[in-house]
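Let us work through a complete example step by step.
Step 1: write down the sequence.
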Amino acid sequence: MNIAKLLILIAIAIVVLKFIASLLGKGDIPILNQLVTVILILFIGFELFQLGQLFLSKFLVP
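Step 2: predict the structure and record it as tokens.
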């Protein structure tokens, strides 16, 4: 398993841990909230980057 897959699995585990903590009424853990926020920002940034690449390849490059 390479480092990227390991990081993705760790990120998924953190988000699942936050979800479970929220279900159990313990969702207000500052470090967990910050980690989930960073993970979601990175995910959204990556998706926007891919969308930008798709837009450039479909509409601007002949």
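Step 3: interpret the result. The chain has a mean pLDDT of 91.
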